[in-house]
TrEMBL record:
Taxonomic source organism: Pararhizobium capsulatum DSM 1112
Name of this protein: GNAT superfamily N-acetyltransferase
Domain of life assignment: Bacteria
Pfam families: Rv0428c_C
Keywords (A to Z) from UniProt: Acyltransferase, Transferase
N-acetyltransferase domain: residues covered: 109-257
Cited SUPFAM superfamilies: Acyl-CoA N-acyltransferases (Nat) (SSF55729)
Amino acid sequence: MRDMTASPEMPLVRRLEAVGFRAWPAAEVAYDGSWLIRLTECHDSRRLNSVNPLDPSDSRDIAARLEKASRRFADYGRQLTVRQTPLTPPALIAHMNEAGWQSFAGSIVMIADIPPNESTDSIEHLPTRDIGRFVDARVQICPGEHSAKAALTEIIGAIKPEIGLFVFEDTKIGPSAISLAVHDNDLAGLLQVAVAPEKRGQGIATAIVQSSLRWARLRGARQAWLAVETGNQAARGLYAKFGFREVYRYVYRRPGE
């Protein structure tokens, strides 16, 4: 496994972790030392149901704390999951490795400068304020998420920073692309970017990301961040066109069978 315990940009890693938690809030948040435990009964998102260590030096009583967290997860009907980032204590990583914990769902956190908008200071596509409309579009583009419709509505409604909900529509198929931009001071996060399968490869993803970034720039953001699955080469290629670069990676860990 790639070593993620060290990073030349640890202050940036800490900041991106913090804005990431605000951008996708869990229903229940608890701390065990510097281990942030996030649980959400209504949605099975890994990011919303994971232990997130935030201090590489906080490695006391690892076995006991994992057992305590496991009981908390079990109360929610969830399997204990640790999100391993550069902030995860090396001793915890060693413990999981020795115990045969599985690694899965690797992602890359990226950042890019948002270029100034054109002199008109306007954007062609304005975000909607209708969370229901956005969620309906998400479910239509990603049918497998229909059961999570109510949960997505609740999660998006709980986001505290300013949000821009972008929905592109086609007269024939309805929603063709979506993007959720979260403006947090001088940073903007891009989440939930998706394009209808029949509209991919037509430049729509580029257009909706561009609209999201222009909106964020007008709101005061100067840099944008996002997380993309390691194996999603198409998305990584898209984001590279906008100047996104890798800052760090993370994976999820669970106890082996």
